[in-house]
Amino acid sequence: MSRIRVLVADDEPLMLAGIQAVLGSAPDLEIVAVAGDGAAAVAAAERVTVDVALLDVRMPLLGGLDAMAALRAARPGAAIVLLTSFGDEANVLRALRQGASGYVLKTCTPEELLRAVRAAHAGDAYLSPPVARQVIGLIGPSGAAGAQRRRAAGDRLAALSPREADVLRLVAEGLSNAGIGARLRMSEPSVKTYVSRVLTKLDCANRVQAALLYRESADQ
Prior knowledge:
This protein is of the alpha/beta class. The protein is built from eleven helices and six strands. It folds into two domains: 4-137, Rossmann fold; 140-217, Winged helix-like DNA-binding domain superfamily/Winged helix DNA-binding domain (Arc Repressor Mutant, subunit A, Orthogonal Bundle), CATH 1.10.10.10. It has a six-stranded parallel beta sheet with strand order 2-1-3-4-5-6, sandwiched between helices. The longest helix is centred in the C-terminal third of the chain and has 15 residues, at 143-157. It is globular, with a radius of gyration of 17 Å.
């Protein structure tokens, strides 16, 4: 079985060494590049094949959010997981809406970090629990802007078939393909096909974006 190729970027040498130690201990992961800033991370992605990029949000020259956009242009198939020590709500939403597959706090456990990388590679999403709570609280803004966002999201969801809408609802609840299959009495391959259709119809990069769109369409 081929290993998951991971690029790691963090401007703190001690943190970078710790991340390398954690990822290097996993037999299914391979660190293909390391970088101390966002610009170096993008340059590395242009040289080597990357499955998952783990980027610190705050780095010199090019921060993780800006590096994410450039890296996705260089490696469209790469999943992005952002790592931060800041509970920056604006950055969380910006990252997820731009297609990040995960957002993990630097206080996470080694097991949580590995889980986030593996989930991103599998096409799923992972948010540290405190981040997930922030996102749920931020979706569905009040006032005219919130109403406009909900209408726009609802218009996009109208393109889905009833079955696709059911699958999206469960994606938004955080269920895996196996969990969705069990709930809807579908095989995992069928669920995977439906999820792919949903992402294509909604023009979403990953499950996180689709889940955010679903939540934005709801009147919260």
